[in-house]
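Continuing from the previous page...

OK, I double-checked the sequence for Carbohydrate ABC transporter substrate-binding protein against my notes and this is the correct one:
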Amino acid sequence: MKKKVVRKLMALALVSAMATSMLAGCGSGDDSGKDSGKDADKGSEETVLKVAAFEGGNGTQIWEDIAKAFEESHDGVKVELEMSPELDKDLTKAIQNGDVPDVVYYNLGQPSGFTETMLKEEAIADISDVFDDELKDKMLDGILDGTDAQPYGDGKIYLAPIFYTPTGFWYNATLVGEGKQYEIPTTWDEFFALGEQAKKDGHALFTFPTTGYFDATIYAMLAQAGGLDFYNDALKYDANTWTSDEGKKVLDTVAKLVGKDYTQEDTVSNANADGGFKINQQNVIDGKALFMPNGNWVIGEMAASTPADYEWGMMGVPKWSEDESQSVYTFTEQMWVPADAPNMDLAKEFVKFMYSDEVVDICLNNKTTDKESGKESDTPVVVPVKGAADKLPDGVTKDCYAAATADDVVAVTGKWATTAPIEGLDMAKAVYGPVESINTGDMTVDEWQKQLVETWEKCADALEK
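Thanks. Re-ran it with the corrected sequence; updated structure tokens here:
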């Protein structure tokens, strides 16, 4: 690997020691001598494919099943699967030791910024050739077009979107919905009016797990406010993003939402990746707050503490007017191949295998077990191929996928475009971190806007390099 990549990863390791990664997988430096060898029983040459996978809300069994299925379909291949809740730390050490995995499952947008760093250092391989015409026809329309698949915006695919989840405001459907205590709001005016009503009944309108969960919310709101062209320009740091009427409307609305009038009072103190985020999620289950930004992974994540009679619901981020189309941000989880992967061709085969009918069925039938309670729950994961979501059993998960593909819904994908490295810039902190300061009164909307304008200037300049 290039020396500058190693230096960057060493710096990243120091940062990671102070930050807890929400999503993780593992690559270890202890097995560098196992790239190939003789199978003692078969006496044949065996190729070892190292897969470093996130251990999180989807559990570990899903990856064990996928690895086994790949081995069975590829003679002479052994998948060496490693998982950990600290991918950024473990994989950084492994790469520094020269132990580069073949395939990595680790998402954009994590606190460590590991995948973003690898992209900025050009340490992730171009895998455009994986997605031939046949595979593209099989996948959901537009799923490969956003910056979360094409991070440089150059038409080349570096990140494979292997799972997808529509996001929005998840709510307590025991209290909100048709025939319930509160009706589902459609517009922001209706949403805040519901907040005033709920406040009188002892319920907060809103909470959020951590500020990082505002990524999908702000993406959807930008598209809602200005349309897809405005949104796509914002992803590439258009200078007018935050000074425009549309951008300012987004900031003003978020500021109102996270203010003390509508956000549950303990939200900020709990909003951390050390477990406090689950307290905020539990507050929705317990009725202390009605809505929060999230994805369907919250069902499995909170299964152990969810009462049997509790109902989840999901709606898109509210609209500013009734006649607008509904924008729903679709979160994707990414798999990628390091530029220095020892088995490049086989790694690409593994990525392509992730879209096979066999893997689709493995993911849809996924189950997870809570480590503390031992409670097993269905945790279906949906691969972004046509028809996969239709196979889901009836229930809230299927409903949220159906809602995201309705005729009047605009599906939104993508993330802030990857730029050349910018010294001292923490993108997540710059964009979403002020949410907490807005809540506490330590920052005004105008100060947040100024910070974003300055950040966009830096990013636009770095994007051109």
